[in-house]
Amino acid sequence: MENEVTLKIKNTVPPAFRRGKGDLLFDVINVSLFALFSLVCIFPFYYLFINTISDNDLVGKGLVNFYPIGVNISNYLALRDVSDLGKSFIVTIGRTILGTALMVAASGMAGYLVTKRKLWHRSLWYRFLVITMYFNAGLIPWYLNMVMLGLTNNFWAYIIPGVIAPYNIILVKTYIESIPKELEESAIMDGAGTLMIFRKIIWPLSKPILATIAIFGAVGNWNSFQDSLILMQSSPELYTLQHRLYVYLKSASNLEAIMQGGSGVSQALTNSLNSKVVKYTISMASIMPILLVYPFMQRFFVKGIMLGAVKG
Amino acid sequence: MTKEQAVKRIKTLIGPEEIVYWFFRALLIFASVMMLFPAFNPGRISLKISQYASLFTTGIDFAGITGNLGRAFNLGWVQKGSFILLTASAILIIIGTIACAVGGCMSLGNRKMRMLGLWFPMGGSLFMLIGLGGIYLAYRQVAETEYASRIEPNFSNGFYVYAVVSLLILIIATALRLALRGKEAEEKMRMDERYSLFLMFLPIIALAFVFAYLPLWGWRYAFFDYTVGGTLSRETFVGFKWFRFLFQNSATMNDIARVMRNTLVMSGLGLLTSWLPMTFAIMLNEIRSNRFKRFVQTFTTIPNFISWVLIYAIALAIFSTDGFLNGLINMLPFGPESQVNWLMNPDYTWIKMLLWGTWKGVGWSAIIYIAAIAGIDPQLYEAATIDGAGRFGRIWHIIIPSLLPTYFVLLLMSIAGILSNGMEQYLVFSNALNRGSIEVLDLYVYNIGITDGRIPLSTVVGMAKSLVSVALLFIANRTSKALRGENII
Fold first, then answer.
1. What is the largest CA-CA distance in chain B?
2. Which residues in B211-246 are b (16+ Cβ under 10 Å) and which e?
3. With helix as H, strand as E and coil as C, how does B405-418 read?
4. Considering the domain B243-484 in this protein, what is its CATH number?
């Protein structure tokens, strides 16, 4: 199904119509505008990147603007010496893997169960979940609730609340409803139980949608900032990467001192660091994983967003 | 359902056994939930233990529980053993509660399963009682130490609640077991599929309840004089004081007016530019090179996946004093007059925020329209071409009308969300200079609630926001239903 949608998009060449001079002008302007906007979207990343691999003195003077000068990767190697950064990396990777895995498993199971007509008070529970998307108690009651549950300054605060994602459950449910019922019915005839059917039939068949929500979930976890900001106030060792970065970006502290301190004299001589470069490098290191998985994500876009348009 | 079946069903539903069972299940659910509520924690044997610690926390987080007691341990005011006993007892109660919950689940099965299932609450409630005994012992030990006053021993009311609940469970379970003894039961344990499916779904319901519904209980803070670490009691109850405060205190009133202005302006700008993604999609559709289309789509959706913090980092790289833009200006022949810090500059904050939002989101938001355009029947184009429509005729008469329903739904949704701008973008871009014009409602709630610790006031603001948002959503839905005959939620 998802292939159909993508294929359709690829093959939408507008049918022929009368073209005049005005159309040509339109095309030129149109293509230029899109080219320009694409450039505006991608250039900042490129700019950041070339500044992290160039000669730091030139970067400090603002002379690296369009292409790298004096290419080296010493800045990235120096990141090893920013100790808090490593912790944040580990915390973020941990929550991304664990949080995404649990969310996908729960969404898969929940999405499947709400398609079962026999479920006791099915529509009631389904609404119970859907309402949470449109209504929430507000930031402070949510925070106090987390305090009450002992989920502050605690790694599990990143994981447990994220397990239930109503929107993803709706996506999975919509997808599973499109799977022919006969498959499930024949399995029931063969005596398979609910869990067996889920494992052997539903799970493999709904892999495309599960992959979609996994990608979105992983990106969300990687980018998570707000929960860390609010819930980890007295546990800097549990800051997520984005929170750590936020602290670095906003503080005027001497980051370069931290980095220079551990990296030895030789390196300091070859490529002296400054706070600008340090900020750029850490930012680039945080963006990199997203850019790396981005090509894989792309093919899930349309399906995810189209299914999302189908309301539950 | 035949009449006989219906009668049978009713009999099983309202038979005396069933009535007792429903009460029993309610009790077991209560027992499971109260484990999470600090108010019911029997294990707060010392006021040095956080008032936020539930029994569950007491059982799993020894370090957290004894966090304030390090000095007491070091100076020998109290034995660590007492608190180890406390934790062990809490673990016993947790295990007991879990056993009770298992029994409650099994009570949904046939009689054979129920009869087996009753052993769990019986054993579980015994565990709970033993655990309570342990907590009582720990309390005695703490209360009887020489330096008791420094530990501030405390006998929590939760203890009585727990004692009553676990005794009730024990009694009812035993009574049910005795009543069921000797009655005929099925050969095999079975459970109706309706219930077995429900039990599989139960963890999801429970999590949604805990994280999405339980916070509503926090609305009570709006009616108390409360600061973090304080207590809710009759003395601190202030009724609607904070609601009145909101309208009577002129400083707060000014804040609210300013924040509402920012919120509405930002959302309004968002609404005014909400046609941009649609235009983006239509224009992109006019490009004939598929490779160029894909190229554009790839590059313009990237910013959507970058967090606001990283976008701020990018803004820093481009617009700060030593950023790209100033570097570029430096290279110009007429030379730099002065270096401008575009980022800190408080001018045009609203427009800047709008531009950042557009930069991040427009390519992504366009996807839904691109897909909608792909779904248009090609015959329509052919018909239009035969009728002599050029490019703009096609756009105007075919593409736009077929996109409008989608646009309409999204527009209504964003009107419903007019108060919810989110706080991340505005938090990362805020600084001392632009604070006045960047603080939107969500950020304001964060600032007064989390940063300033004015819990009741921020709860009131949050409450008002939630209620207005829900009202807006309903109005939007009604509008959609009246105009298009379709719900949007």
1. 102
2. bbbbbbebbebbbbebeeeeeeeeeeebeebbbeeb
3. HHHHHHHHHHHHCC
4. 1.10.3720.10
- Tokens, residue B208: 């949604």
Cross-chain Cβ contact B314/A142 below 8 Å: no
Q: Say whether residue B363 is in contact with chain A using an 8 A CB cutoff.
A: yes
Are residues B303 and B360 in contact, defined by beta-carbon separation less than 8 angstroms? yes
Residue A191 region, left (φ>0) first, then alpha (ψ -120 to 50), else beta?
Answer: left
Domain count within chain A: 1
Rounded to whole angstroms, the Cα distance separating A14 from A286 reads 40
Burial class (CB in 10 A: 0-12, 13-18, 19+), A157: buried
Which contacts of B303-306 are long-range, i.e. CB under 8 A and separated by 24 or more positions? B303/A41, B303/B359, B303/B360, B303/B361, B303/B363, B304/B360, B304/B361, B304/B363, B304/B364, B305/A219, B305/A223, B305/A290, B305/A294, B305/A297, B306/A223, B306/A287, B306/A290, B306/B360
Interface of B with A in 185-204 (CB under 8 A): 193-198, 200-201, 203-204
From first to last of its 489 residues, chain B has per-residue pLDDT tens of 567 776 676 666 567 788 889 999 999 999 998 998 888 999 988 888 888 888 988 888 888 888 888 888 888 888 888 899 999 999 999 999 999 999 999 999 888 898 899 999 999 999 999 999 999 999 998 888 888 788 888 888 899 999 999 999 999 999 999 988 877 777 888 888 899 999 999 999 999 999 999 999 889 889 988 877 677 777 778 888 888 888 888 888 999 999 999 999 999 999 999 999 999 999 999 998 889 998 898 899 999 999 999 999 999 888 887 778 877 877 777 655 666 777 777 888 899 999 999 999 999 899 889 888 988 888 888 888 888 888 888 899 999 999 998 898 889 989 988 999 889 999 999 988 888 899 999 999 999 999 998 899 999 999 999 999 999 999 999 998 888 887 777
Which CATH number does the domain housing residue A172 bear?
A: 1.10.3720.10
The reply to whether residue B458 touches residue A62, judged by beta carbons under 8 angstroms, is no
Q: Which residues of B280-291 are buried (b: 16+ CB within 10 A; e: fewer)?
A: bbbbbbbbeeee
Q: Which helix (H) or strand (E) holds B14?
A: helix B3-14
Say if residues A141 and B222 touch (Cβ distance below 8 Å): no
Interface of B with A in 261-300 (CB under 8 A): 283-288, 290, 292, 294-296, 298-300
Closest to B461 measured CA to CA, from B186, B315, B256? B256
> Residue B206: how many CA atoms within 13 Å on its side-chain side?
14
CB-CB: which of B203, B218, B406 is closest to A145? B218
ipTM score of complex: 0.88
B359/A41 touch (CB, cutoff 8 Å), yes or no: yes
The CATH 1.10.3720.10 domain(s) of chain B lie at 243-484
| Residue listed under structure tokens 């617009």 | B319
DSSP sequence for A158-188: HHGGGG--HHHHHHHHHHHHTS-HHHHHHHH
Report if residue A68 sits inside a domain. no
Q: Which residue range(s) make up the domain with A86? A: 77-312
Residue A56 included in any domain: no
Round to whole Å and give the CA distance between B193 and B267. 48
Chain-centre distance for alpha carbon A215: 7
Nearest by CB to B324, from A47, A116, A245: name it.
A47
Of B347, B374, B354, nearest to B437 by C-alpha is B347
Q: What global pTM score does this model have? A: 0.87
User: Which residue's structure tokens are 């000669």?
Assistant: A55
Residue A249 covered by a domain:
yes
Q: Note whether residue A206 is domain-resident.
A: yes
**Structure-token pair, residue A94:** 């941990």
